[in-house]
Amino acid sequence: AAAEKGGYDYFMLKEIAEQPGAVADTLLGHFQDGRIVLDEQRMSDQDLRDIDKVFIVACGSAYHSGMVAKYAIEHWTRLPCEVEIASEFRYRDPVLDRSTLVVAISQSGETADTLEAVRHAKTQKARVLAVCNTNGSQIPREADAVLYTHAGPEIGVASTKAYLAQITANYLVGLALAQARGTKYPDEVAAEFRQLERMPEDIQKVVDSLDPVRGIARELAGSKSVLFLGRHVGYPTALEGALKLKELAYMHAEGFPAGELKHGPIALIEEGMPVFIVMPPVEGRGVLHSKLVSNIQEIRARGARTIVIAEEGDEVARPLSDYFIPIPASTTLLQPLLATIPYQAFAAEVAAARGYDVDKPRNLAKSVTVE
Ligand code: G6P
């Protein structure tokens, strides 16, 4: 078993380290002569042009990957895009028709709630695209088209490499839609193309610099409760950070949009409470960066200990951080591929420090095939 883990104590640590390859393999073959080709996707450019609304359905981490996709798809394509937990979607009465694209995201391809959401979408005549990591599993079998993630088998119950591969595949869907339909922001979309292609190298840099994160985890392993804040795509990243900590370390954790702080969560802040924040790129979207600076100041004034993930050159965020975790520069929309990784390593290390089985957290299953 030790050999299977490639020298790591846990499969999860091995899978965190495999993320540059998981993303590279998911991108492989999809960039051809400056165009995105979704060859596994049985949908033509004409099909993509006929769509007037996108629904993303998924559970768990896959749902968080869908939240990231919503920001990208709406901006690049100006198509309305909703993202919903599969078990809520199917028992609501979502408005779908043949020009709706439903994207069902699932690592296993067997999650019962996501499968039922796919069936519900099909009875409403929507077109269903599966984003899936498991060849021949049920969700891609029932979908109209499939885009496979190539993360390889994931053993750790808490998703890591499959999650980054899902985010990557979702970007491919968004870029393919923008390409087929046209975009209001051709220069930006071209820059995202280039950034996405070189992401595996930047992910490698983050993976290679996780030791300080493990040190922080050991220091904070006794915490009662941890908050995660972010804005824009930093918000789903906050949710994923909190989910990882709940799943693995059995520690109370909440993710919030930073703008909601003053509407409740700020009341939770006590002296010394750890609060994680992802800073958007300095050169990013509008005023996001300065808004987060204000949020950090608000929580520091109330005694929080801030752990800030930010671009290595972010000299505004650095002095506001009790712990500063640098990541490479990227575009705002692609940043979750980098910013999520320290959260994975943090949760794994806290769990190990607390004496828990990182690969097999209590009460959880890798794939949930009952509703
Ligand atoms: C379970 C796993 C999670 C996963 C979720 C969705 O809860 O423990 O890690 O995110 O199922 O799984 P799927 O296979 O549909 O992506």
UniProtKB/TrEMBL annotation:
Which top class of enzyme applies to this chain? transferase
Q: Domain SIS: where?
A: 44-183, 216-361
Which keywords does the record carry?
Answer: Aminotransferase, Cytoplasm, Glutamine amidotransferase, Repeat, Transferase
List, in alphabetical order, the Gene Ontology terms for molecular function in this entry.
carbohydrate derivative binding; glutamine-fructose-6-phosphate transaminase (isomerizing) activity
Q: Where in the cell is it found?
A: Cytoplasm
What fragment of the full-length protein is this? 248 to 618 of 618
Q: What is the lineage of its organism?
A: Bacteria, Bacillati, Actinomycetota, Actinomycetes, Mycobacteriales
Residue positions of the active site: K366
UniProt name for this protein:
Glutamine--fructose-6-phosphate aminotransferase [isomerizing]
Q: Name one GO biological process term.
A: fructose 6-phosphate metabolic process
EC number, UniProt record: 2.6.1.16
Q: What does this protein do?
A: Catalyzes the first step in hexosamine metabolism, converting fructose-6P into glucosamine-6P using glutamine as a nitrogen source.
GO cellular component annotations, sorted alphabetically? cytosol
Keyword check for Nuclease, yes or no. Answer: no
Primary residence:
cytoplasm
Q: So what does this thing catalyse?
A: D-fructose 6-phosphate + L-glutamine = D-glucosamine 6-phosphate + L-glutamate
Can you tell which superkingdom this protein's organism belongs to?
Bacteria
User: How does the record describe its quaternary structure?
Assistant: Homodimer.
